[in-house]
Amino acid sequence: MKHEDKHSPFTNVLNRAEVKAYVKGTQQPCCTTDNFRVDLNDTPTSIWNTSASHVFTASFCDAHPGCN
Length: 68
Known about the structure:
- The structure is a single chain.
- By secondary structure, the chain is mainly alpha-helical.
- It contains 2 helices and no strands.
């Protein structure tokens, strides 16, 4: 989710179809470090956002060895 400045709309925002497709069928991470996305329309503990938290944690630990 990116935007040019604080007045610009976000881009690359999830839509319901993407979330539904992810929830129905995959055990893979919901996103990548390079294309990190959270679901702003659901709770922090949703399936998508839980997966995103794992992606974030892994990326953070890769960038900061010894963090675990």
